Structure formats: structure tokens, C-alpha cells
Amino acid sequence: MFLADSLLSASNITTRGTQFVDDVGRVVVLRGLNLPINAKMPDFEPLKDPSHMSRLQTLPLYGTSIARVLFTWEAFEPERGVYNLDYLNYYLKLVQTLYDQGILTMVDMHQDFYSRWLNLGCGEGFPRWAILVDPILQKNPWNGPTCVAWILQGPFDVASKLNWKLFYAGENGVRDRFLDMWEYLAKTFADNPGVIGYDILNEPYGDEETEIGPLYEDAAKRIRKYDKKAILFIEPQIYKGAGRRTNLPQPTFDNYVVAFHYYGQTRHPMIVLPFEQALGTWSNQTGTWDVPIFFGEFGANTDRNPDTADFQAPNYISMFYDELDQRLLGGTQWGWTDDFNDKTKDGWNAENFSIVDQRRNMRSNFAVRPYPKAIAGNPGQFKVDSIEKVMQLSWEVTTATLAAGAASGGQGATTVIFAPVQGFFAVPKASQLDIQVTPANGLTCSFSSDWLIYSCLASKAGSYSLVIQPKQLA
User: Fold this and answer.
1) Mapping DSSP to helix (H, G, I), strand (E, B) and coil, where does residue 146 land?
2) Looking at 299-377, which runs of residues are DSSP E strands?
3) Which of 35, 122, 148, 387 is a plausible cystine mate for 336, CB 3.0–4.6 Å?
4) What percentage of the chain has pLDDT greater than the value 90?
């Protein structure tokens, strides 16, 4: 398996306090992409052609260790009580293809304002039979250029708001069918080593205390009937992604993560709070609950060209990753599609967030950068200088770390870093890097044969620091 020396099985990773950890005690940082982001409309299977599926082989070059993979209820249960097993088999093949590249899958139950027939024809997610409002309030699906403001018009769409109310109230058993689906999926994925967990509902609308929180509780019970170990990713109400404190009740189930979404290119403080302020609010809340933060969505729209340089796509996305680095947080950027083009862009509502263009070259809203995938010991500082091409990491190896290493053939004492020699440091080969390990003894470090992974096996307890940068030319 690609990157086989780094982790990687979903059953090996769980939560411990505010961190992700693996089964040998290392602190794990998960980073990756949402994909495929053009899977929101029929036929919902943009990668079913083997030649398209094979394009996922490039993702390890970006450092992808986790993919938040869109799953659409409309595709899976197009008729009430009838599951589309062809769609499920397609999804399973996608999960396996990712796992073959060393990438874990978060199953993302995706929707945006309920259904393609709601939010003025600009929504997606739930099947038409699950719509509970009178057909006169529905609109034909459109999802074209005039839907570009879908997230702003959603709260004013009477049909969407009413339908959410009826859904949470259990009208016509639709909420029960939603829970039945999650039970079926948990049974399907429970023993799949590529599935790390489940995002119960993307960007839900509704009251957090009386509607969304109880739905998560009921879904968790259904999932835990078959999958005891999966991590559950729960999201606040959609507009809490602007940086506000969530009113979700603290869950009663375990092994869960609060997965925030944040899109901060807008500078209007009435809409989106600054990221540092949002992080402070969210960190305080999840710290009180003693659970991890994960950023299920973030990204940069390359259509935006604000007059302030900090909010232009390359600078904004670099700032975002700098903040994640400072706190050693993980996340999945929105997003990746194999079918971006200048006309339909991402392929839904004229959004323009794809990190690759029609030739699958990286766009200005993404850059390959290093990060620690697994830290053996207590994490210290991590910093990346994208201009000077410098990476710095410090950590403390304890006697418990060494014991974990001895009991696991060295794995528990091995720190693993995604450090792409060519993709980030911009030199042809590893010998052209200046690598400083302090102290000089106690660690045995080396690059993988593909020059993507740098690993350090500890043989002594103590505090260590690592700096990697290109050699200075004489």
C-alpha cells in the first residue's frame, strides 16, 4: 500500500481528549480533501469510469491522508424503501481505491438546503419523495449559474425552512427513513479498514438544541448498533460556520469530533468573523467537552479578487493552513473534482473552489505543504514558511513513547512527516536538503524512496527538534 509505513487503517485511529491518536499512542493529524465535489447531481457517480477513478492516484502527492467523500441520499434511495446497490457498490469501489493510496474515507451525508427541488431549485441531497411540503412550493432542479448565491437565499426560502421543520418532527416517517439508512450504512462499512467514520449530516439547518442535537443522538444509536469504533463527525447548524458559538447540546455518545466549516474570504464582520477569533470560540467550547476540532470544509474561491491581498486565494489559503499548523489541527479542503471547466466550474451552482483545473494542474487556491502525519510523543511546535521553504517541528519523546515503540516493532516511537522533497522544498532530490536534527543522537531519520515521507525513530527519551530546508547555494 502507498505510504504503508505511516499509519494507516481506520480501525487504528480514535479520539483521545482533543486529539486523534492511533493504536500505538501517536498523535495523528489528518489532512485531505472533499471529493468528488461534482457528485451532487445525477448520475451522482462522476468517477465510475475506471480512467476517472485512476486519477485519484495523484492525491498522495498532495499529502492527502483523509478524504471526505460525498454520499447522496437521493442517489442511494431514489424510491422510498428501495436502495440503489449499484450506487453503493460504486461508493465502495471509491473507498477501496482511496485506501489503496493510503487515504481514509469519512462518509459524508451531503445535502445543501435539503433537496434539488427546494431552495429555488438550487439545493441538493434528499430524494424527492422525502420532500414534505406541497408540490406547489417546489421548483424544478436547476443548480446553474443563477444559483451562485444559494447559501444566502436558503434562509429566505419558505419551502426549505418548512420542510426542515416537518422532517425533524417526524412527518410521514422521513426522519425514520434517514435513520434506517444510517443503520444500513454502518452495517455495510463497519469492518471496512478504509472508513474512519461518518459525518452524520452536512451543514444542517434547524434549531441546534431541539432538532439537530436529538437527530445526532438517534443517528449515533443506530450507527453504534453495528459500528462501535467509527469516529462520528458532528456539525453545528450551517450558519455557525461564520464563527459563532454553537448551541449544540454536548453529545452523550463517545468517540466524536466537532467538524466545523469555515469560508472566510468575505471580510464583512456581520457575516464571517476572523478565523483567529472563530478558532478561539470553537476551541474553548470543544476544550470544555474534551473532544477534537476538525475542519470538514474550508477553501478559497478563485472568482474572488478582493482589493486586500490577504483575502486573495493564494494568501488566504496559506493563512488558513498556517493557523492549522500552529494548533496541529486537521481538515479537508473543499475540494477536488476531475471535471472542472471554465463553463460549469465545479459542476454545481457555479461554485469555483476546485483545487485543480481542467488539466488537473493545481490552481492558486491550493499548495502542497508538509505536515506531521503521526507524532510519537508529546507535540511541541510546528511551523511552515511557504516562502523560504522551511519546515520546523519539535516534540518530546517520553519513556512511555519508547515502551510503545518496543511493543510495536518501532512504530510507536516513529514520527512520520509528509515532507515532499520536490512538491514543497522545490529541489530535485533529498540530498539537496539541509536537515538539522537536535540533539544529533537519539533519532534515526530517513526519507521514503519516493521522497514524500520523512520518518524519525526515537531510541532515547528527550526533547527533539527538526528543521528541513533547501541547502543554500554557495
Assistant:
1) helix
2) 330-334, 371-375
3) 35
4) 91
